[in-house]
Design a protein that fits this description.
The structure holds 2 protein chains of 2 kinds. Chain A has helices at residues 7-15, 19-41, 44-60, 71-89, 125-138, 141-152, 157-164, 168-193. By secondary structure, chain A is mainly alpha-helical. Chain A starts with 6 loop residues before the first helix and ends with a helix. Chain B is mainly α. Chain B is rod-shaped, with a radius of gyration of 40 Å. The termini of chain B are far apart. Classes of the chains: A mainly alpha, B mainly alpha. Chain A binds chain B through residues 13-14, 16-23, 26, 30-31, 34-35, 38, 48, 51-52, 55-56, 59-60, 62, 125, 128-129, 132-133, 151, 157, 175-176, 179-180, 182-183, 186, 190, 193-196, and chain B through 3, 6-7, 10-11, 15-18, 20-27, 29-30, 33-34, 36-38, 40-42, 44-47, 49, 51-56.
């Protein structure tokens, strides 16, 4: 019964006391949220702590939930805010989420560890993926966040803007630069890896 | 390929970047986090993990039902308890009864005072009433249901009255106690039948005088509880006399008819009323119904009002309300 329901309906059911609805909701989004946090803050323990905090906030704020926006937007908005709070409390974990130096950042070098000038060597898809992970990690935090929100949560530009508290134009700019950098870094692999 | 076109392709899902990202190794979430979060979520809505969803109205409804049952039991408890623990409402009723008894005593005193006034000269009436009252009360206590036959120790009572009346000497004629005893004795020795046929003497005791014996009586009464209980027992036997009066109109009612100014105070209805106050609710209602059936609508209404005041939570039958 819960499996086909929309996120918003599940959250409303949970708000009304249906704990089973939360189970479905949680299992739908736990992986994406965890990866978003982990790849954004790069610290597993911090990501786990934030992950639990985000869901606790969702649980506590269930009474105030209004399905005016997508639940996913609501969830990642909470996650973004928790992350910002956490960074402010622990300056040693610098994510540079608020920095605005997209244009100044050098392009991500997602070159293979040792292509060795041997383009004929077929690079398997696994190594390409590892390079992508490294490229994502090398992105500036705002661009990285925009990319992760797009890939993990499937948010549109407007929803990314809403979740991160910026204008849609800013969100678009961040995502555009992120995609460009990642493609540029993978370009050498693209010809053999099918990224084109 | 320009960056704009690449971005458009990415947004439309035509780029291989999203596919490559989807193939990335999935980081596993620790299972203890799952358990902790789900437990917290279920705790928040009062459910166990894996359990059926609880209805939000079940708990308030059950609490309201429990409260209702508790209130009902609490209301019924005073009537279920043994006599040892008397609730405050019953104590109030008992107090109310005692007040009624006091009123009855005052009425009886007035009645006797009026009867004494009939056989005594008007100036001496106020001073004579109190000893007479005490005397008749003592007799009534000793022999319930029997009219006073023997004189009481009037001199002692008279002395007490004189001492208590010292506060208002101008209203009490300075008559010696022995002289006051004579009319009282004469009254007491007079048979009731003779009193019944005796002409109604137009003796009117002033209000102050009529009230004084009652006040004096109250002052002379001990205020402790034991004496009060004893007095109540004596009054109950005296009320038995009142019942006898109601059943023997020839002997008792004649006495009262002889003094018209006291008819409202010590009439058979008044005695009946005092008796009805002590009746159980059902019997009291039966008496009220009887009064109404006899055509005594006004008395019935008064009694009904008294009944409602006494038993505000008791449901009065509709036939009594409508009549």
């Amino acid at each position: 019964m819960h499996d086909e329901a929309a996120d918003e309906q599940l959250m409303e059911r949970y708000r009304d006391g249906d704990a089973g609805a939360f189970d479905v909701l949680y299992h739908r989004h736990k992986g994406g949220l965890y990866r978003y946090l982990l790849r954004l803050c790069k610290h597993r323990d911090v990501a786990e702590e934030l992950f639990q905090d985000v869901w606790s906030n969702i649980i506590r704020s269930r009474e105030r939930y209004q399905p005016s926006a997508k639940f996913t937007t609501f969830l990642y908005q909470v996650a973004h805010n928790r992350l910002i709070d956490h960074v402010r409390k622990r300056p040693e974990i610098s994510l540079s989420l608020d920095e605005a130096g997209e244009d100044d950042d050098p392009p991500v070098e997602l070159v293979a560890a040792d292509p060795g000038g041997q383009p004929e060597i077929m690079v398997d898809r696994k190594r390409l993926a590892e390079s992508l992970v490294k490229g994502i990690a090398a992105l500036p935090a705002p661009q990285r966040e925009a990319f992760l929100l797009r890939e993990e949560a499937g948010l549109s530009l407007e929803e990314i803007a809403l979740a991160t508290g910026v204008t849609p134009e800013t969100a678009k700019s961040r995502l555009r630069y992120a995609v460009a950098k990642l493609r540029d870094g993978l370009r050498g692999w693209g010809e053999s890896g099918g990224l084109g | 390929m320009s960056q704009d076109r690449e971005f458009e392709n990415y947004m439309q899902g035509k780029s291989g970047l999203s596919d490559l990202y989807a193939d990335l190794p999935q980081d596993k979430l620790p299972s203890h986090l799952d358990a902790a979060i789900l437990a917290e979520a279920h705790r928040a809505v009062g459910a166990r993990p894996g359990g059926k969803p609880r209805r939000s109205w079940v708990i308030p409804l059950s609490m309201a039902a429990s409260l209702f049952v508790a209130v009902i039991i609490g209301l019924q408890l005073p009537y279920l308890l043994p006599g040892g623990s008397v609730p405050s409402q019953m104590r109030q009723e008992e107090k109310h009864q005692e007040e009624k008894h006091q009123e009855e005593k005052q009425k009886a005193a007035k009645m006797e005072m009026a009867a004494a006034d009939r056989s005594a000269p008007p100036p001496a009436a106020p001073a004579k009433v109190a000893p007479e009252q005490k005397q008749s009360r003592a007799q009534a206590n000793n022999q319930p249901g029997v009219p006073p036959a023997e004189p009481a120790p009037v001199t002692l009572a008279a002395k007490a009255v004189i001492s208590l009346n010292a506060a208002a000497p101008q209203r009490v004629p300075p008559e010696p106690a022995p002289t006051m005893a004579k009319p009282a004795q004469a009254f007491d020795k007079k048979p009731m039948d003779a009193m019944a046929v005796a002409p109604a003497a137009p003796v009117e005791a002033p209000p102050v005088v009529a009230e004084r014996p009652a006040r004096l009586y109250e002052q002379a009464e001990p205020g402790n509880g034991a004496a009060l209980k004893k007095e109540r027992r004596q009054r109950s036997s005296a009320e038995g006399n009142a019942a006898d009066y109601s059943t023997q109109p020839a002997a008792a009612a004649g006495t009262i008819v002889a003094a018209p100014e006291t008819a409202g105070l010590a009439s058979p209805q008044a005695e009946t009323k005092a008796d009805m106050v002590n009746l159980p609710p059902k019997e009291w209602l039966a008496r009220i119904r009887q009064l109404k059936q006899q055509g005594k609508t006004d008395e019935g209404k008064k009694e009904l009002a008294a009944f409602r005041k006494r038993y505000p939570d008791y449901s009065v039958p509709k036939d009594l309300e409508t009549r």
